[in-house]
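Input/output pair, single chain:
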Amino acid sequence: MRRLVPPALAMLCVAAALVPAVTSAAGPQPPDCPLLAPRKAVDHPLTLPDGTKVVARDPYGGLLSRNRLFFDFSVRRPVAGGAPGGVAEVTWALDGTVVRTDPRPPYEWKGVSGSNRRMPVGDHQITVSVAPVGGGTPATTTFAITATDCQPATAFASIDESLGGGAHPVGGSQLDASSSFESADGPTMTSVVFSGAGFATRVPRSSRGRDAGTLTVSGGERGAGRSYRLRVPRSGATLLRRGGLRVVLHPGAKRFLTVTGLLSGIRSASVRLVGRGARGLFVKRSSGGQCRYSTTAEIAGPQGKVVVSGGTSTGLC
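Output:
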């Protein structure tokens, strides 16, 4: 089975490879940050005088969290991507001040996210002007971006149906959610709902009455982590019942696992499903010998809720 790499972690690894070691991410997260979800990239279309179509790509969908090591806006071909032809020059302006003029591909404006000189915290307007080869009126577009030191929520899920048994079980499913990527000072979480596609959840008879892993919660630097044992009951599908805290499987449902009743101050939750009780809880769906699945996590807190991707995996069944 091919294991997932969390989207946020993969992004960080790429950033670390491209940015000098002396460069660091943004400073500590401000207090009272809301729950944030990463937004999808937005392509802003432009048409040159000769009919050539290009797009100015905002990879952050209007919300740039400055914990990333750098930002990167670009002008590219629609759909296929890559540097477009017919372009003589691209000019980038931030709040009316030109910050970059790019006479050759790739047409990109890059900078260090945490630098107030390059992308200050607050609301901004980015204007992109694309001058055509041979002269003529440049094509121009303007879009809004908010730069914040509040960091987005993140999640990661790895589903493994091939669990070993015995004293040292092999494999295991991991379901992680955090209210703030790379920060111990994120918003409080009250619940997490994991949803998925490409697999089914069940509770086989052989799992009944057996240990099935752990739930680990943490308040970051403000609260030490704590672990709870998960166990498949003789009937029903509640793996943990401790005061108001619940971990519940939902066999056959898209929203396949819920963690509710998290205590005040909790900022991360990790469900590790492993052991004899966890064997067979998930069944992947095969298509031509390939298994592809995806997951999301709905993270809720006193200020609302967000939905973030837990990743996608494709591999041999």
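Confidence is low (pLDDT under 50) at residues 1-26, 163-170. The CA atoms of residues 19 and 225 lie 32 Å apart.
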